[in-house]
């Protein structure tokens, strides 16, 4: 009999402010990042009060990793030093590979209404940290979605969805860490059992409703909580009352992580180099 993945932890996010004063919920980030390897940060932003988001993220650098922005609601404008301009709208994804350096801004393209979504940081392996930067805007209509036999709607942002009946490649595939990023909408009474390779680190972020993991826990997980699961076994998800969940999985890099703000490298020396490069205007 195949074991279910065990729950390692269930934790809430922390209120935080970033950019020029954007209020958000930091779900992953801070000390002990190796527990989430290959992911470095997950921020949730959700507000209908423009004071919480209007200041946006004026120009700032990144080096050493990738940022994935997924908009549930609202519009955000991206501009970077490579000359890319992108308008990120409801349901859209921006996949930015900072690698050796990108300087960009992320500003709201609205003065009122709801702004809701996520930014996830995915680490790059040491050999790609100083590679060429890249950038992709993926509008909602180009992101595969499906409804399982069990009635769960799945937005397949990255990786490969497979529940033994339906298989669907996501909009983005990445080597090395093989990230899986699915947005799951579980109507009341539905269930789903996505297959994930052993060795993949799996996390579930419940952002609406109540999620049950029948094989792993008797306690439903409420919105605003991140569940970390063990690296092998089956995964069975259900919701009696309905839930919306981000499923985030990836193969850990097992490399040293040294972070200083928007720079994530493998050593202090590399961070100092990034700071010098930024100061000298040669980061990107
Ligand atoms: Fe950024």
* CATH C-level name of the largest domain: Mainly Beta
Overall, the morphology is globular
Order of helices and strands: EEEEEEEEEEEEEEEEEEEEEEEEEH
The termini sit apart by 51 Å
User: What integer value in Å does the Rg equal?
Assistant: 18 Å
Please state the second-level CATH architecture of the largest domain: Sandwich
Low-confidence stretches: none
Major sheet: size, sense and barrel closure? 8 strands, antiparallel
**CATH fold-level assignment of the largest domain:** Jelly Rolls
What portion of residues belong to β-strands?
A: over 45%
Distinct compounds present? fe (ii) ion
Number of helices: 1
The CATH superfamily of the largest domain is Jelly Rolls
Number of extended strands:
25
Percent in helix: under 10%
Number of domains: 2
**How confident is the prediction overall: mean pLDDT?**
95
Describe this structure in words.
The protein is mainly beta and 284 residues long. The chain has two domains: 158 residues, Jelly Rolls, CATH 2.60.120.10; 110 residues, Sandwich (Jelly Rolls). 4% of the residues lie in helices and 48% in strands. It is built from one helix and 25 strands. The strands form six sheets. Strands 1, 13, 14, 17, 19, 20, 21 and 23 form an eight-stranded antiparallel beta sheet that branches. It has a seven-stranded antiparallel beta sheet with strand order 2-3-4-11-6-9-12, with no helix packed on it. The longest helix has 12 residues. The protein starts with 6 loop residues before the first strand and ends in a 5-residue tail after the last helix. The site of fe (ii) ion (FE2) has 6 residues, from strand 5 and strand 10.
């Amino acid at each position: 009999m195949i074991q279910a993945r065990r729950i390692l932890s269930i934790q809430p996010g922390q209120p935080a402010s970033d950019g020029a004063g954007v209020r958000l919920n930091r779900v992953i980030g801070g000390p002990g990042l190796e527990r989430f390897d290959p992911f470095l940060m997950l921020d949730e932003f959700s507000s209908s009060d423009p004071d919480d988001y209007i200041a946006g993220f004026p120009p700032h650098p990144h080096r050493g990793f990738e940022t994935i922005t997924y908009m549930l609601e609202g519009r955000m404008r991206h501009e970077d030093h490579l000359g890319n301009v992108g308008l990120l709208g409801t349901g859209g994804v921006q996949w930015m590979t900072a690698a050796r350096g990108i300087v960009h801004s992320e500003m709201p393209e609205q003065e009122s209404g709801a702004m809701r979504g996520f930014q996830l940081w995915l680490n790059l392996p040491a050999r790609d940290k100083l590679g060429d930067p890249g950038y992709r805007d993926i509008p909602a209509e180009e992101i595969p979605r499906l409804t399982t036999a069990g009635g769960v709607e799945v937005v397949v942002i990255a990786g490969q969805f497979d529940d033994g009946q339906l298989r669907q490649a996501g909009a983005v595939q990445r080597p090395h860490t093989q990230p899986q990023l699915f947005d799951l909408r579980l109507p009341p009474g539905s269930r789903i059992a996505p297959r994930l390779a052993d060795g993949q680190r799996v996390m579930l972020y419940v952002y609406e409703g109540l999620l049950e993991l029948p094989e792993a826990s008797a306690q439903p997980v409420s919105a605003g909580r991140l569940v970390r699961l063990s690296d092998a076994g089956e995964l069975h998800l259900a919701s009696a009352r309905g839930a919306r969940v981000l499923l985030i999985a990836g193969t850990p890099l097992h490399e040293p992580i040294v972070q200083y703000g928007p720079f994530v490298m493998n050593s202090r020396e590399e961070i100092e180099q990034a700071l010098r490069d930024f100061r000298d205007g040669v980061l990107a």
